[in-house]
Amino acid sequence: MSASVGYNFGFMDEYAKKEIRRTVLKAVAIPGYQVPYSSREMPMGRGFGTGGLQLTLSLIGVGDNLKVIDQGSDDSVNAVNLRSFIEMTCPGIDTTTSVDEANLIQSRHRIPEKPLRDDQVIVMQVPYPDPLVIVEPSEDRRKIQHGEGNYSKLLVKLYEDIVQFDEITISHRYPTCINNHYVLDPSPIPRWDVPKMHQSRALILFGAGREKKIYAVPPYSKAEPLVFDDVPFRIEDFRDEHSVRRPCARCGCTSSFLDEFIDSENGEKVYQCSDSDWCDEQLAQQGEC
Amino acid sequence: MKIDAIWQPDKQQQMFRVLLEAMSRPGSIQSLPAALQSSMADKALLATLLDGEVSMCDRHALLTTSDWPLLQARQADAEQADYILCDGAQAPDFEPRLGTLSCPDESATLIIKVRSLYGGDMGLKLEGPGIEASTRVVIDGLHPDWLKTRQDWVCSFPLGVDCLFVDESHVIGLPRTTIVEVC
Hints:
The complex is a heterodimer. By secondary structure, chain A is an alpha/beta fold. In chain A, 28% of the residues lie in helices and 17% in strands. Chain A folds into two domains: 2-225, Bacterial phosphonate metabolism protein PhnH (Rossmann fold, 3-Layer(aba) Sandwich), CATH 3.40.50.11310; 237-289, no CATH class. Chain A has seven helices and twelve strands. The relative contact order of chain A is 0.15. By secondary structure, chain B is an alpha/beta fold. Chain B has one domain (5-116, 139-176): Rossmann fold. Helix content of chain B is 22%, strand content 23%. Chain B has four helices and ten strands; from the N terminus they run αβαβαβββββαβββ. Chain B has helices spanning 9-24, 41-49, 67-71, 145-154; strands spanning 30-31, 55-58, 74-75, 83-87, 109-113, 122-127, 135-139, 162-166, 170-174, 179-182. In chain B, strands 1-9-8-5-4-2-3 form a seven-stranded mixed β-sheet. Chain B has a three-stranded antiparallel β-sheet with strand order 7-6-10, with no helix packed on it. In chain B, helix 1 crosses helix 2. The termini of chain B are far apart. Chain A binds chain B through residues 8-9, 14-15, 17-19, 21-31, 33, 35-36, 58-62, 118, 121, 140, 143-144, 146-148, 179, 181-182, 199, 203, 218-222, and chain B through 9-10, 12-14, 16-17, 19-20, 23-25, 48-51, 53-54, 100-105, 107, 109, 128-132, 157-158, 162, 175-177.
């Protein structure tokens, strides 16, 4: 593509990629530990997925098939822009909207409904990498707490939630313990997606561009949401007032994570699959029947 | 002038994916990318990861002096180096950096060259992150002291070293989290 002339493959220079690659290997070797790196300037604002983008650009090569997701959809503005930027700067790669066809997936806020495979890598865009930041302002002290596996302050925060609201009120970015040591921020995925990290067949990488951290959940690793023995972890409840599971208004699926919309004409609530590829696939299967 | 494939960015990208796969799935034998079949795995690996930002120790003089300017890495003692290239047939006789409790990433990565990653007399059972249940590898030409010494280095997680075993054209990763048992 002519627009790519003048840029190195993958936009970043090879030294920048090498540094990220070294960082990624350390991140995989120390599951859940946030490895610092010198996040480079990208031609977009920090906080728009620059961490995920730098990871993808350091991983991708000719022959890879990339899927980019923003809040479950391939057609949201963040996904469209990142995908077209990667297509422009990485001539020779393929892109797709299908989870089945992709071997590299960059995502914001969702892990696909369909279980990922061994040959896939998923890259998550992370705004706030450290789950301890809400209870400890000093990074020096947070690093010591992480090293010692000392998450008592975080547990007190969860306990205070239960005392005040009878429930842990964290809706997304639920702190999750990896391989019995480090607690990580799984990026703003809903609770629904947290169990998908446990014993995932695919490697999960996290990139925080603004905060300059990379971390990972290796495949087949323990990923346990932080809870108390007598207060089990629970995912979102999509039952209506009659305790019936709401279906997706488009495909009728009753086993996916639903987004809530307000119908602009009659003001009623409408529920639809958040994962657009999953929704399309359910519709296609019904068409075949 | 013909540039050896290991120095070409697109081959290094392929090599990195091989290394990522090796480190993510400890014990799985990863082959060099097709384009690097005629290259040596240890040099391809070093070319992929090193530049002037990091230091390396060639503990058992496996490189030639002409390799150093191309790798760009600073030379360092094994006690200080970010990367240590070792001959697996010789017993480990150094203390690598294990990182600190706050910064376990400031630890060495060991590249250990062995005769073969297929067959041989040393069978190892591996368990840990990246491995479904358990897996078994057989390494040929590894001095038995390595296992005991590695165990000492990785016994207090998150401190430790991460190893990459290479023969001529294959790589096996052994991050600090992998539990190794001789069988």
